[in-house]
TrEMBL record:
It comes from Cyclobacterium plantarum. It comes from the Bacteria. InterPro entries: DUF5687. This is ABC transporter permease. The chain crosses the membrane at residues 21-42, 62-82, 103-129, 141-162, 169-190, 210-230, 280-299, 311-335, 356-375, 381-404, 425-446, 452-469.
Amino acid sequence: MVSNLIKLEILKRIRSTSFARSLAIGIFVFFIGIFLLGYLLLLGLVLNKLIREVLGKDDAVVFINSCLLYFFLLELIYRYFIQQLPVISLGSFLHLPLSKSKIIHFLLGSSFISPLNIISLLVFGPFALMEIKPIYGGFPAVIWLAAVILTSWSIHWFILWFKQRFEDSLIGTLAVFTTLLISLGANYFGFYDLGAFFEPVFTFALESPVPIFLLLTLLILSYFLCFAFYRQNAYLEELSEKEHLQFANKNLGFLSKFGLAGEMANLEWKLIIRHKKSRTYLMLCLVFLLYGLIFYNNPAFQSTSGFNHQFIFVGTFITGIFMLQYGQLFLSWNSPAFDFYVHQKNGLKALVRGKYLLFTGISLLCFILSIPYVYFGWNVLLIHLATFLFNIGITIHLVIYLALWKPKPMDLNKGSMFNYEGMGLSQFLMFIPLIAAPYAVFLPFAYLFGDYAGLLAMSITGAFGLLVFRRISTSMAEKVIQNKYEISSAFRQEL
């Protein structure tokens, strides 16, 4: 049966009309993945030297054991956003005369074939070989490495259950980030160190194989927790009901005050919260709100006069990350229903203006949430204000103009991360002018008159963009209307 399921999965992929494009993108992503995994292996090879020579720790093994908990918390974060669920495939097999349990075992097993599951081996394998083996011996090194890998694999099954259980709400995201922030914050302010608390668990693995049996039991329990949940909820009607009913009443009522454009913005909001890929972009806004913590309090980025010019880049991302990421697929989000807008009176114009309204509103919300960064200085607040004005006055038009160059269709029901449907060359190259535009205005004035003159120039440029906002947005809408048949024809291609 397994061979038949594998055969069906292969046939589904190679019979797609977009197989050639998907294959080309897959090869590109494969080489990027190999490149990144190579860097992780390089990190593992020099990890012991980094700990001793850079961090100045005498006992690298004790230090790593006290930091492993934070590594696993970080693993929870990147697995939560990157690791894909097998639910879409599940809906393709449930109508077949096959054992439901065997189908779920197959899908869960296939989900385990992922580069994410070898990251812990690449990072800590060389460390165990080069640092632990010479001190403790070969067998303790193998036991310790096995303990680390089993913990990582347990997280794999836990995330499959966790994402499926909480994916349709913000509870999952808030829980994951709250756990990480509380742990890091408590360690930073010296309240308590969770890493040191769990350090004896992995130190014990150097002395006895008992942790292996305990972690193996944890791995099995996490797998069957995941299996039991999928088995219990593996019904086509439940899959469809959860997808369509849970967010049925999630409206932004105040948008109706903006007329038809507001109704389109409200419809776009429903699209965002109902689909995993678009919802991921919204969640990333929360992640990038913390981006400034890396720079604003880092002595390496402080300047004796004015401020570090990299802060312009940070402010642009914090206040405009949603329009930069979600906007690069400007019309691709609506490709399945694009013909509907084409045949409605003023449908396309209202769609474009609704997206403008949504981009501006979320950017304003990001700016408001970033105001507490004033704690690091009033210059940070001025940077965020200037970049916000520039984003909604200039950047928003650049995003939409570049996104209208040969938009591609996209299936919203597919995975959220490492899904490159709708992406073309223009989307990959879009970030270059978008990041360069603020500096093109800021740097000449900052060089001639000072950093704050550069901020003033950015603010004035953004304010001017707001004054001509209606004229430019109308021009963008007319560009969509002018190319509507070409765009519609491209969107009708079967994915």
